[in-house]
Amino acid sequence: MLEHFCECYSDLSGPILCPVLGSITPLFIPNSRIRPIRLIGLCASLITFLYSPVPRIQFDPSTAKSQFVESLRWLPYENINLYLGIDGISLFFVILTTFLIPICISVGWSGMRSYGKEYITASLIREFLMIAVFRMLDLLLFYVLPESVLIPMLCGAKHLLFAGIKLFLCRGLVL
């Protein structure tokens, strides 16, 4: 049964779309029902974690080329395509990312009283963006996505000026 599942698996967008769907679902639940919001976020991140090591089964470590390459027409009038693929390093970074996000959600479990919906949504959007960074083969999106991972981190800032300074300092320290 596992071989049949692996033969059918060539889709890298599943682990990318699962956190997106998981982050949209809590938006339709009222803030007073924090328990279902937490459970949806944790289940979406766990499903993503269970789904992420599947390419490892068919992965060929003897080649340095990107494997499981998918191409989607994104902006056809500009001839910009969306290329997804995976190599040896990004395979383990995706697994590590999907392993850490459920832990992060579990650690913040007791502290989610007033902003639980926002915490879950930001965590799942961050997971989506990090997985997309490691799966993108397109140079334009590979440049844009690492910068966009910082946006959910800054959404909780009370003062936008402080958030801008924080982003500037973090960006300056990296460069």
Automatic annotation (TrEMBL):
<feature type="transmembrane region" description="Helical">
    <location>
        <begin position="124"/>
        <end position="144"/>
    </location>
</feature>
<keyword id="KW-0830">Ubiquinone</keyword>
<dbReference type="GO" id="GO:0008137">
    <property type="term" value="F:NADH dehydrogenase (ubiquinone) activity"/>
</dbReference>
<protein>
    <recommendedName>
        <fullName>NADH-ubiquinone oxidoreductase chain 4</fullName>
        <ecNumber>7.1.1.2</ecNumber>
    </recommendedName>
</protein>
<feature type="transmembrane region" description="Helical">
    <location>
        <begin position="36"/>
        <end position="54"/>
    </location>
</feature>
<dbReference type="GO" id="GO:0003954">
    <property type="term" value="F:NADH dehydrogenase activity"/>
</dbReference>
<dbReference type="InterPro" id="IPR003918">
    <property type="entry name" value="NADH_UbQ_OxRdtase"/>
</dbReference>
<feature type="transmembrane region" description="Helical">
    <location>
        <begin position="89"/>
        <end position="112"/>
    </location>
</feature>
<keyword id="KW-0472">Membrane</keyword>
<dbReference type="GO" id="GO:0015990">
    <property type="term" value="P:electron transport coupled proton transport"/>
</dbReference>
<keyword id="KW-1133">Transmembrane helix</keyword>
<dbReference type="GO" id="GO:0048039">
    <property type="term" value="F:ubiquinone binding"/>
</dbReference>
<keyword id="KW-0812">Transmembrane</keyword>
<dbReference type="GO" id="GO:0042773">
    <property type="term" value="P:ATP synthesis coupled electron transport"/>
</dbReference>
